[in-house]
Amino acid sequence: MTRNSTRGIQVILALHLLLWGVTPLYSLGADPEVLKPRVPQNQLAEVRTWINPFPATPENIEKGKQIFHGKGFCVTCHGRDGKGLGNIPGLRGKLPRNFTDRAWQAARTDGELFWILKNGSPGTDMAPFIPLVLTEEEAWHVLLYVRSFGQPR
To answer: What residues make up the domain containing 8?
Structure first.
């Protein structure tokens, strides 16, 4: 992905904010269906077998953090602390996931999260990020960082 492509996506998000307000880009935590898979049922068994090829080392988690807060602009919807950025009046659709929710962390496999980064999240405004914004390697690193939100601190 070129720097111009990433900038284009950021411009689209900025225009969305100007035209529609902050709806539905910000949220507080997970919706009531937090444990419901977003992967279509006919793909779920296979997707659950996908394993992150990168170990959860401090270096790999830091790589994911840099992407989460930078190129991936995940922070825009999920916030710096992974909880989301508040329940804005007029929010449409399901809320972005609260990555600190341990029940959600335990229920979702890395393969499911990777599938969402590749395909988007049905019923939400979560768009596909692979390959438009992130490479597959970058996505796996982001998921290591996302998993770190569910760890005791």
So the answer is: 3-148
Calculate helix-pair angle for 110-119, 136-148, nearest 10 degrees. Answer: 130
> Residue 94 and residue 9: Cα distance in Å, rounded?
21
CA-nearest of 95, 96, 100, 68 to 82 is 100
The answer to whether position 153 is within a domain reads: no
pLDDT higher than threshold 70 for residue 25: no
List the CATH number of the domain containing 35: 1.10.760.10
CB 144 within 8 A of CB 64: yes
List phi, psi (to 5°) of 69.
-90, -10
Contact 83, 77 (CB under 8 A): no
Residue 65: inside a domain:
yes
The total number of structural domains that make up the chain:
1
| Per-residue pLDDT, 7 | 59
What would the pLDDT profile of 82-138 be if each residue is shown by its tens digit? 987 766 555 556 777 889 988 889 999 999 999 999 999 887 778 899 999 999 999
Look at 142 and 36; give whichever has higher pLDDT.
Answer: 142
**Is residue 62 situated within a structural domain?**
yes
Q: How many CB atoms lie within 10 A of CB 35?
A: 12
